[in-house]
Amino acid sequence: MDGQPRRSARNSAPRLALALGVSTLGALAVALAGAAGIARSQTASPASCSAQGPIAYLCGPKNIEDMEQVPGTPLLVAASYGLKAGPNSLALIDTRSRTAAVLPIEMAPKPDAPYAACPGPVDLAQFSAHGLALRPGAGGKHTLYVVNHGGRESIEVFAFDASQAKPKARWIGCVVLPKGASGNAVAPLPDGGFVATKFFDPRLGPFVPQFAAHKRTSVVYRWSPKGGWNVVPGGEATGDNGILVSPDGAWVYVSAWVDKAVIRLPLKGSGKIVRTKVDFMPDNLRWAPDGSILIAGQATDIDLVVACKRGVCAPDWGVARLDPKSMAVSYLYWEKGTNLFAGATTAVQVGDKLWLGTFNGDRLAIADVPKAPLKP
Length: 376
Fold this sequence. Notes:
The protein is mostly beta strands. It has a domain at 1-61 and 297-376. Helix content is 9%, strand content 40%. The protein has 5 helices and 25 strands. The protein has helices at 12-20, 25-31, 36-39, 207-212, 302-307, and strands spanning 56-59, 64-69, 75-80, 90-94, 99-102, 105-107, 129-135, 141-148, 154-161, 168-176, 182-188, 194-200, 219-224, 228-231, 240-245, 251-256, 261-266, 274-277, 281-287, 293-298, 317-322, 329-335, 344-350, 353-358, 363-368. The chain has a 5-stranded mixed beta sheet, with no helix packed on it. It is globular. The two termini are 22 Å apart.
């Protein structure tokens, strides 16, 4: 791999969508009854695991929709999406050995004090992870927050111990999301609370009609142990997705997936709300070592994403870099979706490599960090 980004299919998605004739709402509803429909489609055989051009693969981990590096280690903690994987919903990826394993989960009999309102331990048989985030702690002992769709819509909280050779997670509590909220992503706040995105409102039916009609049913929530849930003004969008908080807790960055934008919202004072357009559908956000924000997403439009099945029209994907101060976007990768890897949802930089996950697949993609961005 030469470390150079590629620009293989920058403007192909609209033409493909038109050729497939998936512009009507009725076609969308027939094509997909719910969010998990894509995740259950067929994937490529693990036998096809050799590198393809600049992209290498780690085969085995399924539907790794989101992941984050464990501080001070070569490990990634990752969430498998839409598989109803129960205790297998969380995984550990070793970027040094390029291996993957299930993250062991232990259970506490009752929630810790900050989560006293949690109705009880999560049912691991139903546990279904989506987005996740780590709050770094001392001595390799961190707090892990996971968006859960199994049994309840909630943020499940785990004590994550990476101080030993084999890290493990211990469930310590939950915060049930407000009524009418299907969560997507979560990020910790300095005050012990967190922010989370409401992807859509399930009381209004499946997300497909809501998103196809560009209804703004998404919001950004803030939760604190003392104040509970509150809406962060300015985060209303169509398909709020990935989320990050600045290290000083002053700003929140959120992906407006269907709107093809990243929004910066003030959490302190009266700062200005800024919306920056992105050429693809921005999914998860991750901090890069240089302080910029990595954006991964699907290089397509909402009708194609929800109507296509993997192997028939696998979504193209892109990776971009966002300057959190200027909100300027530069593009690092723009790749055509294949039956091996498509529809990237997250990008994490470890050393000189980008590790890429997808909502639907049997592998992670690995690519060089580009030496320069794509030319406009």
